[in-house]
């Protein structure tokens, strides 16, 4: 509560290997645990979905295990994580249906997809063709602060 509103987007940028996905995973665990990610005070828990395009299932599980252990009894069981190391091409019907199915099944209030290099190099060419996600506001905010700001809220 008070961190992000529905439909807000957050992009983290920085050098590869400096923990951006770790921070996003922590945000998802906190959201699904009803814990403020900054104060650890209680708040309303919301369903979260992580789609990791880099780590295999075992590594993703290890990454999440220690975070869930720290959340302890606060964890509400409403976090779902998927490893998708083969990537995700939303122009391909099978990949689109896969993502749509996850969103329908888990109804996440928070969706984390990464890492950035996949989004930056793939998504700009695909967003215009995401007609199945027309109910969502989507923008790729990558680059310098000025470029990220220019991505602004989508129309």
Descriptive account of the structure:
This protein has 155 residues and is mainly α. It has five helices and three strands; from the N terminus they run αβαβαβαα. α2 links the parallel β1 and β2. α1 packs across α2.
Count of beta strands? 3
Model regions low in confidence, pLDDT < 50 over at least 5 residues: none
Main sheet summary: 3 strands, parallel
The ordered string of helix (H) and strand (E) elements is HEHEHEHH
Beta fraction: 5-15%
Descriptors for this entry?
single chain; 5 helices
Protein topology:
Blueprint (H helix, E strand, L loop, with lengths): L19 H14 L14 E5 L4 H15 L7 E5 L9 H14 L3 E5 L1 H11 L18 H7 L4
Parallel strand pairs: 1-2, 1-3
How would you summarize this macromolecular structure in one to three sentences?
This protein is mainly alpha-helical.
């Amino acid at each position: 509560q008070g961190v992000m509103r529905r439909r807000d987007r957050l992009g983290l940028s920085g050098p590869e290997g400096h923990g951006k996905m770790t921070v996003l995973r922590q945000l998802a665990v906190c959201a699904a645990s009803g814990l403020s990610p900054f104060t650890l005070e209680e708040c309303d828990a919301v369903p979260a979905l992580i789609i990791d395009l880099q780590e295999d299932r075992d590594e993703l599980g290890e990454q999440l295990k220690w975070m869930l252990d720290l959340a302890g009894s606060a964890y509400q069981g409403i976090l779902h994580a998927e490893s998708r190391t083969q990537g995700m091409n939303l122009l391909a019907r099978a990949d689109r249906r896969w993502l749509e199915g996850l969103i329908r099944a888990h109804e996440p209030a928070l969706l984390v997809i990464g890492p950035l290099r996949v989004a930056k190099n793939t998504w700009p060419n695909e967003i215009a063709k995401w007609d199945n996600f027309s109910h969502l506001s989507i923008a790729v905010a990558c680059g310098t602060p000025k470029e990220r700001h220019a991505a602004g809220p989508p129309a």
